[in-house]
Amino acid sequence: MTSRHMPKKQDLPPTAWAVLGLLSFPGARTGYELKKWADSSLRFFYWSPAISQIYSELRRLEALGYAGSERSGSEEARAKRRYSITAEGRAALAEWAAGTADAGPVVLKHGLLLRVWMGHLAEPERLREMVREHQQRTRAELAAVREASAQAAAVEEWAFPALALRWSERQHLAELELAEALLADLDALGPVGADAKDHPGPEVEVEGGGGRAGQGRGDAPTPG
């Protein structure tokens, strides 16, 4: 690849920096090992890229001179390619990590809340069931976070990953509290949506015509 076609440092996607960040800790690792580490660390507070994305970014980082790789010798039954960060890669990563650019807003894609948002199409008990299932998943994730946090705390070089994992533990605990509050909100809401036909509420006149408030109008039910 010629330098004319090499991606510029500032054009690298966050996934590339995340993979380079995994390489910034001591030791050389295979793509599979990087994926395992991402699954047991990054995914709890950011995102774990697919194995295909990891190898794609490793190729990109090698082309830039930010990473290097070596094949294992004959002492291993199957040859493996292990990757490590270069001095140039470490300098670029340090510059990116300490950069003045805004890290951007937190992106939340909450599948359960999307279902709740469309709760008028669902049976209320099914919504509550989904919240309870979400609580079970969150408790399982919390246990995994705590296990990863304990492992990171035992390694001196992983002090900052340990901080991120402790934050993730608090976030999962908060998620459990939010789920409990959501169950209470659903209970307080009463019969609406799928079973509202059996419990019709009062008609409310609105400006410009009859019918229920907010129904039959073209505007959104919330400001914006």
Structure description:
The protein has 224 residues and is mostly helical. Helices cover 50% and strands 4% of the residues. The chain has helices spanning 14-23, 31-39, 51-64, 87-97, 111-117, 124-153, 159-189; strands at 67-71, 81-85. Strands 1-2 form a two-stranded antiparallel ribbon. The two termini are 47 Å apart. Mean pLDDT is 85; it is low at 1-5 and 209-216.
Keywords for this structure?
224 residues; mainly alpha; two-stranded antiparallel ribbon; 7 helices; 4% strand; disordered N terminus
Distance between the termini: 47 Å
Question: How helical, in percent, are the residues?
Answer: 40-55%
Strand content: under 5%
Give the number of helices.
Answer: 7
- Rg from alpha-carbon coordinates: 25 Å
Lateral arrangement of strands in the main beta sheet: 1-2
The structure class reads: mainly alpha
Largest sheet descriptor? 2 strands, antiparallel
- Write down the secondary-structure element order: HHHEEHHHH
State the total count of DSSP E strands. 2
